[in-house]
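Sample A.
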Amino acid sequence: MGLVIKAALIPLFPTFALIAHYIVASERGIEALRATIIFSMWSIIPYFVYLVSLWYFTGMMRLPAAFVGSVACWGISAWVLIICWIKLH
């Protein structure tokens, strides 16, 4: 069980987010950082779509195909999120 918890939680450690947020705050200021944080909150949706689709696909496909399908689902949901964000902001 410990390995399952580590494998699920470690990829979510915000290593790249910390770097990106520092760069945004340094170059664009706190207001841009706050807008970035809001978008980051919404960006959890494509990751959730990836996880749900991977769970579903692993029940019916071989693992490589499940990964490809799940990444495609992530890409589509990320694209929809970006389009919606641009239209609303």
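Sample B.
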Amino acid sequence: MKLIQHWMLCAALAACTLSASAQNNPPPPPDGQPPGPPPEAIAACKGKAEGAKVEFKGRRGETVKGTCKKMRDLIVAVPEGGRPPPPPRD
């Protein structure tokens, strides 16, 4: 009887371990770089000049006010009060 309980406990622990490791985590960014700006921030500045004031919907559906700034090869909306863009990589 104890042998059956032992094997059932081992099976339960293995099932818990497998289910925890099977979670769908997003892959890490390539080359260790942070993910790019959201599509809404890019669309808000499409056809606008750097420095233009814009509004767009944030990731949670809220209205975000921002300024169009050049980041890498794109002009994107940077939220007011947000962190400055990282320096360009060589």
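B remarks: The longest helix spans residues 2-21. The mean pLDDT is 80.
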